[in-house]
Amino acid sequence: MLELLQYGFMQRALMAGIIIGILCPLIGIFLVLRRMSLIGDSLSHVALSGVAAGIVSGVYPLAMALVFSVLAALGIEQLRKKYEEYAELAIAIILSAGIGIAVVLISYAKSINVDLFGYLFGNILTVRSSDMRLITGLGILIIMFVKLLYKELFYIAFDEEGARIAGIPVKRINLFFIVIIAMTITLSMRIVGVLLVSSLMVIPVAASLQVAKSFKQAALLSVVIAELSVVSGIIISYYMELASGGTIVLLSVIILLLVIGFKGVMQKT
Amino acid sequence: MLELLQYGFMQRALMAGIIIGILCPLIGIFLVLRRMSLIGDSLSHVALSGVAAGIVSGVYPLAMALVFSVLAALGIEQLRKKYEEYAELAIAIILSAGIGIAVVLISYAKSINVDLFGYLFGNILTVRSSDMRLITGLGILIIMFVKLLYKELFYIAFDEEGARIAGIPVKRINLFFIVIIAMTITLSMRIVGVLLVSSLMVIPVAASLQVAKSFKQAALLSVVIAELSVVSGIIISYYMELASGGTIVLLSVIILLLVIGFKGVMQKT
Amino acid sequence: MKKLVSVKDVCFGYENELVLKNVNLDIYEGDYLGIVGPNGSGKSTLIKIMLNILKPSKGSIEMFGKNIDDFRDWGKIGYVRQKATSFNTGFPATVEEIVAANLFSRIGIFKPITRSHREMVYKALEIVEMEKFNRKLIGNLSGGQQQKVFIARALVNSPEILFLDEPTVGIDLDSQREFYGLMEKLNKEMHITIVMVSHDIGVITEKVNRFACMGDSRLICHTNNSHLEITDILKEVYGDKMNLLIHRH
Amino acid sequence: MKKLVSVKDVCFGYENELVLKNVNLDIYEGDYLGIVGPNGSGKSTLIKIMLNILKPSKGSIEMFGKNIDDFRDWGKIGYVRQKATSFNTGFPATVEEIVAANLFSRIGIFKPITRSHREMVYKALEIVEMEKFNRKLIGNLSGGQQQKVFIARALVNSPEILFLDEPTVGIDLDSQREFYGLMEKLNKEMHITIVMVSHDIGVITEKVNRFACMGDSRLICHTNNSHLEITDILKEVYGDKMNLLIHRH
Amino acid sequence: RNDIDKQSQVMSGEGNPVVYASIYPMYDFAKNIGKDKIDLRMVVPAGAEPHDWEPTAKVMVQMEEADVFIYNGVGMETWADNIFTTLANDKLIIVEASRGIDLLKFHGHEHDKEHEEQDEEHDEGGHHHGEYDPHVWLDPIRAIKQAENIKDALIQADESNRDFYEANYQEFADKLKALDARYKEALSNVKRKEIVVAHAAFGYIADRYGLEQIPVSGLNPQEEPSAAKLVQITQLLREKDIKYVFFETLTSPKLSEVLANEVGARTAVLNPIGGLTQEEIDAGKDYITVMEENLETLKAVLGE
Ligand SMILES: Nc1ncnc2c1ncn2[C@@H]1O[C@H](COP(=O)(O)OP(=O)(O)OP(=O)(O)O)[C@@H](O)[C@H]1O
Ligand SMILES: Nc1ncnc2c1ncn2[C@@H]1O[C@H](COP(=O)(O)OP(=O)(O)OP(=O)(O)O)[C@@H](O)[C@H]1O
Ligand SMILES: [Mg+2]
Ligand SMILES: [Mg+2]
Ligand SMILES: [Zn+2]
Dihedrals φ, ψ of E8, to 5°? Predict the structure, then answer.
């Protein structure tokens, strides 16, 4: 454990992991309950098309990726209204559109030689000090956001129409929420990797949903599970010489399976 | 139009496109209505980990990809029961697990030397005669399957519990369905590309849901919209020198937006 | 009289607390069984166990003489679940398609729906006065209209036994009257067995010929119709204030 | 008497057919308004239009004297929609959490729920006798218990006007009686205005002090309570056979 | 810090400098120059897709102790930037092997000489925006310059073996010159000039030996060519009666096969040496031998 912490990149990986482990499940729970589990994967593909557009038009690609992601998120919000009962359909549509645009732009430009994917796939081991500041800033922003709007986000997730009639400014909160999500996903996936961001938003939440006895518990438990996966994942991946991102994700999946299995056993007896 | 058809690969692209344009929305409508819109994207990532596993273990990678996809599909089916109200969560979990395994396997093996993505990303322009036979076979299989089990699949999609009490062998049909889906997706994405397969399963269905006045209509209309996108996509991509797959997808998105816009206008008046 | 359903010594609890404790109940051919009881007394749970949607932790269910796990003849059973209208309202299916789907056991697997089936659908819709709405999307109906469609769906099969969990919820008075009339006809003339959960005790006591009352995790009473007796029992279950609301039509 | 809601010349149709044709309705402070009518007559639609969930194609709504689009004071309004229990049963929220969420207009944005709010929640749950279930997951309750929770949610805010769309659906008799008693108390003692859609005409005619009856896309009648009159009107709407089912308690 | 220093000495064996090379050609060049005096490792496992490729923590720890890191540059290794900025290794000598080399711009498949000259100044900035062709190593003459960059770095890291590295570099440079001579001779009077390749990896060879590269995909092998492009190439194949379509070892040959089928041509391997497979390495192949294989293929195909 100590050996591991000698190195700056390992310290930063752990720190970034711990922050991401709070941030992802905390927004993930609202996303999952609103059937937007796959928004991370969807926005990452849109970001890809943003990078391509940036390269084609000569604009700084990451900025373009951000713009595209936020626009896509707003698009998802619009489409969600058209498919009230099928929010995940909106995600799927935007995902397809994202890849479609990327592919067409690449073929249109004809000489894009930037490994586009490289723009998206961060890695928790290559977090820089400047990234740390960004991730910490995002972390504080999100935690504040969720803390301040906790009861409103909860009500909207449970019953959007009801929330509106309770006087909650649903439209504005939704807009704000989705924009923050898009920014968080786009920026943090570049730092710690899209795999990690989108998985940590979903799998710990799924595990906590199996056992949680209240919404608050579900939120807290998912953070605990995420942190467990992150910390043990970084340690295990170090000693077994495996990719850290993948190991963390697989650990969270294993925790999920254990929780499901444990619950099954409990119910039988 | 005629000019285009001089070339064997264009003929095959059109033929394959037309078949895929029937097949994808036909299974897509059941998937969308069961909240499994993103199964295509999910299984493609699992197939990736299958290819990696095949390479690591020395087994023919495509076979391994198929095995992994089918197993993952069964996994989704199992998880779906745990998250009855959140079927899309099962998809998201399997997707993350798929990439996680792929990444870990790659880092574990250290010398995987085949381009993994080449295994997944077909291209509608590179359809070979032998592929045509496979795709036609799959097409006939799926159409038969949907035709024969139409009313059962419909009932299950609408109300699974009700279907069981009506005496429909829900478990067996679900199993059969999900296995066929996994096989179709894995094999056909290799031929025409994962982008095309997963988009055509979702977007034409989304468009038809906006206007359909019955389930049958929704199914037929989605096939019509898919065919429209495929045929005009191939022609337009040819003349505008764009990637065919991306163009088809973007066209289907445009049709979707037109349908939504048109519906909006109709309702206002 | 043939025994259609036999609930033997069934126990069930969702988590720890038992919802059903050693419940025994036999349902015979021709019965019109009303099940009443306060909210949360386990009525819906009992129905779900009878239909093999939930598995009892103890005891067993026999359906038409067979253990429920071996029972295959689902065409004989009609079921309207509680909150039937709580489906995905975005589903693009017409009333006709939904009702027709339940004809499965008539048609058989792999076979298409024919004109004669469609006529059965039409008849079932006529019974609930929804024949004019046959081509409407189910999600576009009012709550009560949807409930009627689900009743039609249960009837379309001409089942031998009907399980109805609060079937008249959200249905207007006129239609309720027609519905109860129909149930009486089905039961008396066509000898269809009916199991109905309802809070409408006034109607239930009037119409049914057998009566079960749930409370305190048990089947408290289980009698053949006899108004006096029932009133006493109801008082026991619901408390004294109850009396006021029991009315006969 | 203050006019709380004013429906002015409202028309509405979902697709082509008009569901509401030139409906006019004023609701005054202290009213206990019952809305009845057959299934599909537009009762829920009317409520939704009053609450700005649907936009009328013609006409306007005023709420507390303001045009509904400019109305902000939603804390004054309580609403239990039809099929309230048709939510996502997998949602991991406790009864308490759900009821507390509706305190929004009391608490204000950005502020947390405090102990005193929790006591209000507890009181609302007591009213519907669900206080023992406060820590249970909403999805794990029986249908009737869920409905009670949604009633508590509407009450927690101590609203000035309550819109209830078939609130007693699935609720057992004893609780129904308590519920109607409570409504009477809220209305008479606390001067809360109540708008209630129900098919339970017997109870409605007994309890309400104003009465609206929908049919044929119109508000057919709209009178102050007078039993004789109502019976005649109901006959007109539901047909002659109707009589049988109207009963008073 | 002291502990770490000790540890690093233990890890780097008998005090040999620890050298990391990004991709196979860099690895091969460094090996030819450093031979047994350096502790050489390749970062990206042979052929792995860079965007699935995640360095493990162990590799990162080892790179903290490394002395030299060699990479090709010109946007070939997008992941590299991240690694440099992450490591706290002050003594690490980072070599962009393509530094100071005149790069070619990529413009589809028609070359535009004027642009190339104008753009040379920008190269000094060291930051490439992707329009440059990164496959520098495939031109033996430019490869010499790359080898020189690598040699300089090794000397900087390990002054004591300066002569050893210089000698090896000379030897390797001579081999490359000889290779160049053989290419020149063999390709100067071939019948055809057109090579149809899977992706635009052979721009530098084409530039050096007066061939015309017709790539099916662009610089990025993942790019999906348009139907119009395929039609153009088909027409070109027919017009010029080209008999071969090349494919690569590390990417799917499907596109090349489809094209070849269309006009009745054959397919053959032309290896861009971005990475060798384990089998190839085990069979004793290296940069020079594969370049020679490529030459044999080119001779056979273009001389026909
Ligand atoms: N979303 C919708 N799209 C199209 N038509 C609809 C929609 N919702 C309701 N309708 C139709 O509008 C009419 C009025 O519906 P509404 O729900 O207001 O009736 P209701 O009086 O509340 O009936 P119930 O007693 O059954 O609840 C019905 O004929 C119904 O079919
Ligand atoms: N999924 C569940 N998980 C845990 N407990 C449950 C679940 N469903 C029901 N319960 C509990 O089991 C008890 C019986 O529920 P059931 O639905 O059978 O009642 P019911 O008699 O049908 O009531 P109602 O008249 O309200 O429909 C209730 O106390 C309820 O809270
Ligand atoms: Mg019940
Ligand atoms: Mg209604
Ligand atoms: Zn290359």
Answer: -65, -35
Q: What is the pLDDT of residue E19?
A: 93
Residues of chain E with pLDDT under 70: 1-14, 46-53, 107-131, 220-222, 304
Q: Chain B within 8 Å of C72 (Cβ-Cβ)?
A: yes
Task: State the Cα–Cα distance between residues A4 and A6, nearest whole angstrom.
Answer: 6
Q: β-strand D218-224 against D58-63: which pairing, if any?
A: unpaired
Q: What CA–CA distance (Å, rounded) separates B132 from B136? A: 6
Please, do chains E and C touch (3+ CB pairs < 8 Å)? no
pLDDT digits (tens, 9 = 90+) for B192-201: 888 899 999 9
Cβ count within 10 A of residue B11: 14
Per DSSP bridges, beta strands C210-215 and D32-36 are: unpaired
CB interface of A with E, residues 73-112, below 8 Å: 103, 106-107, 110-112
Q: What is the mean pLDDT of residues A96-110?
A: 85
Quickly list DSSP for A87-155.
HHHHHHHHHHHHHHHHHHHHHHHS---S-HHHHH---GGG--HHHHHHHHHHHHHHHHHHHHTHHHHHH
Residue D129 Cα to ligand 2 midpoint, Å, equals 15
Token pair for residue E246? 């090349």
Q: What is the mean pLDDT of each successive set of 10 residues along chain B, which is 269 residues long?
A: 80 93 95 92 90 86 92 93 89 92 81 67 86 92 92 94 93 93 89 91 96 94 97 91 91 96 79
Chain D residues within an 8 Å CB radius of C170? 39, 82-83, 166, 169, 199
DSSP string, B38-55: THHHHHHHHHHHHHHHHH
**Closest ligand to the CA of D199:** 1
- Cα(A154)–Cα(A246) distance, rounded to whole angstroms? 31
Taking only the tens place, the pLDDT of each residue in C211-232 is 888 877 677 666 665 555 666 6
Residue of C73, C104, C112 with shortest CB distance to B168: C104
Q: For chain C, which domains are there?
A: 3-238 (3.40.50.300)
The three-state secondary structure class of E138 is: helix
Chain C hits for B152, CB-CB cut-off 8 Å, are 104, 109
Q: Residue D167: closest CA among chain C residues belongs to which residue? A: C170
Atom of ligand 2 nearest to the CA of C48: 18
Which ligand has its closest atom nearest to the C-alpha of C170?
1
Residue numbers in A near E61 (CB within 8 A): 7, 10, 238
Q: Residues in chain D, how many? A: 249
Strand E18-21 with E68-71, pairing: parallel
d(CA C9, CA C22): 4
Q: How far apart are CA D156 and CA E259, in angstroms?
A: 72
Give the residue, out of D11, D12, D14, with the most ligand 1 atoms within 8 A of its beta carbon, to mutate for a pocket test: D14
- Please name the chains neighbouring C, where neighbouring means 3+ C-beta pairs under 8 angstroms: A, B, D
Q: Given pLDDT bands bounded at 50, 70 and 90, which one contains residue D243? A: very low
D66 neighbourhood in chain A, CB within 8 Å: none
